[in-house]
Amino acid sequence: MTQQGRIDVTQLEIETIVGAYPREREVLQTIYLDLGLEYDFASPANSDELALAIDYDALTQDLAKLIQAKRFKLLETLTLVAADHLLTHYPLTRVAVTVHKPSAMARAERVSATLVKTASP
């Protein structure tokens, strides 16, 4: 029997180059990610073993390295690539990725992009 569950990681801080304007391509900016990681909790919950669970520490380090290496221009692209990476490299059934960019606009606290994606069967 499956036990579909969700792990949430909120406000994951990443320093990276992100933005389309020339000034944004020159300096590191802080972005924040919120992740919703859905998968079957049955096996890890019954065994209480990390080896059967999603190691969210390793997952977030892996995702941060990807984002820092890619240097995205658009939040939409960053969000889609992050969701696809998570679904491809981890046994997740569904992910929700929100990217917050506080420095995007002087008139707003932040600009955010959100994508929810389900794994292909």
What does this entry look like structurally?
The longest helix has 15 residues, at 56-70. This protein has helices spanning 42-47, 56-70, 75-89; strands at residues 4-16, 29-40, 94-101, 111-118. Strands 1-2-3-4 form a four-stranded antiparallel beta sheet. The protein has one domain (4-118): 2-Layer Sandwich (GTP Cyclohydrolase I, domain 2). Helix 2 packs across helix 3 (75-89). It is α+β, with helices and mostly antiparallel strands and 121 residues long.
Which secondary structure elements does this structure contain, and how are they paired or packed?
Elements: E1 4-16, E2 29-40, H1 42-47, H2 56-70, H3 75-89, E3 94-101, E4 111-118
Antiparallel strand pairs: 1-2, 2-3, 3-4
Helix pairs in contact: 2-3
Descriptors:
single chain; 121 residues; alpha+beta; GTP Cyclohydrolase I, domain 2; 4-stranded antiparallel beta sheet; 30% helix
Tell me the structural class. alpha+beta
CATH architecture: 2-Layer Sandwich
Count of DSSP strands: 4
The count of helical stretches stands at: 3
Overall average residue pLDDT:
95
Regions with little confidence, pLDDT below 50 for 5+ residues: none
How far apart, in Å, are the first and last alpha carbons? 18 Å
Strand content: 25-35%
What level of helicity do the residues show? Answer: 25-40%
Output the CATH topology: GTP Cyclohydrolase I, domain 2
* Domains (count): 1
What global shape is seen? Answer: elongated
Task: From the alpha carbons, calculate the radius of gyration and give it in angstroms.
Answer: 16 Å
